Amino acid sequence: MPAARPVDGAARRALALLDARWREFSDLRALADIALERGGERQRLTGVLLVRHPDSVRFEALSPFGQPYLLVTVHAGRITAYDAARNEARLGAANADTIGRVLGLPLEADDLVAVLAARVAPPKDLRVAELLPADDAGPSLQLVTPTQRQRVWLDLATGVVRRVALEGGRVPVRITYRFDGTAPAGFDLDAGAGDLTGSVRYRNATLGAGIDPGRFELTLPKGAKRLPIR
Question: Could you tell me which of 215, 159, 165 has the C-alpha nearest to residue 28?
Fold first, then answer.
């Protein structure tokens, strides 16, 4: 376990910027185009994405005819993935392991929300916060907890996050964000040292429009088969 170290003024200011941007985020809705490649297999999905601070997500993958065929919700500490064609649902506690198995991103629920919103949720039990010299991607902040090391490339004037690298979870993850002006336009990802690569692109992204928490509650159809996420 890393020993706690004093945080200097520059790192403290960068942390404050990250925290302010995380707290000001309320919700995001967008049409998301997802392209993933894992072990030589490629998958493409288009669907409606809803994200709400601090830890709620809903994704509805749409068929070419506009009907949802896969629904995934992360809400109130639970994750549910419903396959409409099979009338089958996988359920479990929303943690980095289950979210990784369903969505490919091994992140805790609040970190998943932060990634989708192009933010960083300041880590709990922070032991080290250190501003690193700028590289080709600019200045970065290294954040270390007992279980994770996170490097965040950000604009030190605005707190806008450009890139995030996470280590210490089930697999290392690197996220590079895209923007349309100041609005998030999606991201590129690399997880497991290239085992999973892909991109997420947003269309018609809207921030702060207000999303009813009830939208994240998924009521399964009668007779749906329920399976634990393993």
Answer: 215
127 exposed, middle or buried (CB, 10 Å; 0-12, 13-18, 19+)? middle
The token pair that represents 24 in the structure block? 């000001």
Question: What would the two tokens of residue 217 be?
Answer: 């509650």
Q: How far apart are CA 189 and CA 180, in angstroms?
A: 18
Sequence-distant (6+) residues with CB within 8 A of 134 are 140
Domain architecture of the chain: domains with CATH: 9-209 (2.50.20.10)
41: which 2 tokens? 């297999």
Residues recorded for the chain: 230
CA dist 180 → 22, 177, 187 (Å) = 19, 10, 11
Q: For residue 99, which of 84, 115, 119 has the smallest C-alpha distance?
A: 115
Q: What's the gap between Cα 124 and its chain centre? A: 17
Helix (H, G, I), strand (E, B) or coil at 39: coil
pLDDT at residue 141 is higher than 70: yes
Q: What are the tokens at 113?
A: 């929300």
pLDDT at 169: 66
pTM of the model: 0.92
